[in-house]
Amino acid sequence: MDDVLSFIESKKEENLTGLMEFLKFESISSEPEKKEEVKRTAEYLKDHILNIGFETVKVVETAGHPIVYAEWTGAGKNAKTVLIYGHYDVQPVDPIELWDTPPFEPTVRNGKIFARGTADDKGQVFAQLKALEAHLKTNGKLPVNVKLVIEGEEEAGSNNLDPFVRNNKEMLACDTVVISDTEWFADDVPSICYALRGISFIEVKLTGPNRDLHSGTFGGLVANPIQVLAKMIDELIDENGRITIPGFYDDVLDVTDFERENFKKLPFDLEKYKKDLSVKALTGEKGYTPLERTWIRPSLDINGIKGGYTGEGAKTILPSEASAKISMRLVPNQKPEDITNKIIKYLKQIAPDTVKIEINPLHGGEPVLTPIDSPGIKAAQKALKAAFGKEPVFMREGGSIPIVALFSEVLNVAPVLMGFGLPGDNIHSPNENFDLNNFYGGIKAAAHFFDEFAKV
Ligand code: BES
Ligand code: ZN
Question: Which pTM was predicted?
Answer without folding.
Answer: 0.95
